[in-house]
Amino acid sequence: MIPATFDYVRAGSIDEVVDTLKEHGDEAKLLAGGHSLLPLMKLRFAAPEVLIDLGRVEQLRGVRDLGDGRLAIGAMTRHIDVMDDPLVREHCAVLADVTAKVGDPQVRHRGTIGGALAHGDAASDLPAALAALDGTLVAQGPNGSREIAASDFFVDYLTTALEDDELVTEVRVPKIVGPWGWRYEKFTRVAQAWAIVGVLAMVKRSNGSIEEARVGLTNMATVPVRASGVEQALSGRTPDAIADAAANAADGTKPSSDLSASAEYREHLARVLTRRALEAAAR
Amino acid sequence: MTRVEMTVDGEPCEHEVEPRLLLVHYLRDVLEKTGTNIGCDTSNCGACTVHLDGRSVKSCTVLAVQADGSQVDTVEGLAGPSSDGDETDGWHPLQKAFHTEHGLQCGYCTPGMIMAAKDLLEENPDPDETEVREGLEGNLCRCTGYVNIVKAVRTAAAELREGASS
Ligand SMILES: Cc1cc2nc3c(=O)[nH]c(=O)nc-3n(C[C@H](O)[C@H](O)[C@H](O)COP(=O)(O)OP(=O)(O)OC[C@H]3O[C@@H](n4cnc5c(N)ncnc54)[C@H](O)[C@@H]3O)c2cc1C
Ligand code: FES
Ligand code: FES
Question: The domain containing residue B36 runs over which residues?
Fold first, then answer.
């Protein structure tokens, strides 16, 4: 399978990306790691006329400490480099742990955090993680840059709040401070497959009880979902309350039915995986 | 057409290519290095695995233009020089171990398995069985049932560790 022809632009800077996007509008597509886009182009589900390669835009790579309790991760930072980054490991290891569950080693060597989020795929693991972390994305376009909360960024299946002439420059996540535990439970059909359902639970403990719980769900709607009912039910309670709270994990979700699972089965998985993830996170 | 320059198996090469040319087609059709196989063509099977700047990637999901300026290593560059009459004595420990441990049947997945395993062993010189299985998660084999592949990788790992310490 061979993609349709396109004009290839290898951008050298963020400004050049913005200028090229402005010039070509929705005929252009950004190419990051290519591990979502190239398969679509090979199937001719996507046939951009202009492909703007971000691979040489060094400004988009790497992790820095913003100095306000948050880390900024450049959009072109590859999954493997997020996992191995000393700042991420020290201050936001939960993100490294979720990223380690993305695809397989070869995919993690090419795929980027910016591409994984901008693609807006409900089955992708990182959107739910960013939602649970209350992270943000920085978008840049002809009119400058703006910061978008994860809860506003994901709009619908493969649809985000990005405009046609904007790119994601970085992803911002809070440093995780204090006695937090976490677990990402990813249920797949075969080893390296996409999540049928994924659940990230994060639990902050104090004196044996749960001070704060966060639950992010992968593939339970067209966008990542927070199980806010479960989160509220656990606040101030002991871990004994987890089983009852997790029974409501599918409330308010709208999972799809497909070849891998029916919507009902996904709801069942959400409840079971939420309980497992919370129990592991609270230990 | 776009000009690409890269080093493949230690040899510099330079061509004008269509931007839509996949790296695996560049290797197989332009450079005639057919050691790297195409299995699924959908980024799932890993048969097309090569190293791009030292890390394993599926070359059916990389454009040749993305590899411009990079170092590409394929299974064809693995073996060292061999002495007269015995081509096997230059083989890389992974090649030898897949042979001696019966890590292949039809052999179609083998170039990709070996390149994925090489990346794994560079990161983790002494993986246990689970670590080998997880490290090769991106590579499918329809023949062997994986048991002998895991054995081969661990045998090669032992030989490589010995080589490193002597
Ligand atoms: C075999 C396989 C298995 C996989 N398994 C998983 C999995 O289990 N979990 C998972 O989460 N993911 C999985 N992935 C997807 C992988 O993580 C992708 O790499 C990722 O989703 C997209 O990142 P990319 O850098 O490859 O983006 P690309 O494919 O290059 O781009 C994806 C989309 O985002 C846009 N884009 C890219 N960068 C930007 C930017 N900076 N600003 C604005 N728009 C941008 C592109 O225009 C395109 O529309 C898998 C992929 C493969 C091939
Ligand atoms: S041919 Fe590339 S992954 Fe199967
Ligand atoms: S040996 Fe036949 S596919 Fe692996």
Answer: 2-77
Interface test with A, best of B2, B21, B43 (most A CBs within 10 A): B43
- Residue where the block lists tokens 């380690």: A100
Looking up residue B21, the CATH number of its domain turns out to be 3.10.20.30
Query: At a CB cut-off of 8 Å and minimum separation 6, what does B19 contact?
Result: A5, A6, A7, A8, A51, B2, B63, B65
Number of domains in chain B: 2
Residue B86 falls within a domain, yes or no?
Answer: no
Complex ipTM: 0.96
The predicted-structure confidence for A211-222, as pLDDT tens digits, reads as follows 999 999 999 999
In 10 A of CB A63, how many CB atoms?
21
Q: What is the DSSP letter of A3?
A: P
Query: Across the interface, do B61 and A110 touch by the CB < 8 Å criterion?
Result: yes
CB-closest option in A4, A7, A34 to B63: A34
Q: What is the pTM of this model?
A: 0.97
CA distance A108 to B134: 13
